[in-house]
Amino acid sequence: MYERSRQAADRIREEISILQVLADYGYEVDPRAEDHEQQFRCDLHGDGTDGKPSARVYPGGGQFFCFACGRSRDAISLVQEKEGKSFWDAIRLLEQKWNLPPLPWVEEARPPTASEEVRRTLDRSITPERALRRLEALLTGVTQDRSLPAPKCAALWEAYDRLSYAHSEGNSKGVAEAAMKVLGKTKQALGFKGD
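Predicted structure:
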C-alpha cells in the first residue's frame, strides 16, 4: 500500500468508530460501547442471512471478523462491499460522511518497478544478509501483487529457501549460486529479457 493510501486508511481507523459505521448500516451493535467487543449477525456471506451472530467487532483495532466469511474487515472494506465502491471511493464517502477534510497532497516518491527491484537485487556488491532481505521482499511482492501461477511462486520460494539455507551454513559459494538461480527464476517469471 502506498504511503498516501496507508495514511488515509490509518486516519479512518483512528477517527471513525467501526461500531458507528456498523450501526449506520443497520448491524445490531451498540455504538456507545467503545470498550467492549460485540457479536452481531453478518450479511456479507451466503444468502445474506445469518441465523446466529457469526461476526465479532474489535473496537480497539477498528475492525471485525466474521467466522462464517472467514474474513476480517474494517470500515473501508465494509463500505467497499456494501456500496460496491473502490478503495478511494470508500475513503471519500467516509471522509464526507464524517466531515474529515481531505489529506493534504504530498508528492510521493515513485515506487520502484519490479524490473528495478530485480536489477537492484542483482547488485553483487551487497552483503548476503541484505540480499536475502531484498529477495524476500521482492518475492513477497511478486507472488502477492502479480498473481503468478502457483508453480512459479513455489519455484521462486524453493530457490530462495536454498539461498537462505546455504547462507545459514556459511557456504558463500552456495549463496552466490543460489542467488543467481533465484534471480534468474524471478526474471524468467516476470518475463524480463536481457541482462
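Summary: The first strand starts at residue 38 and ends at 40.
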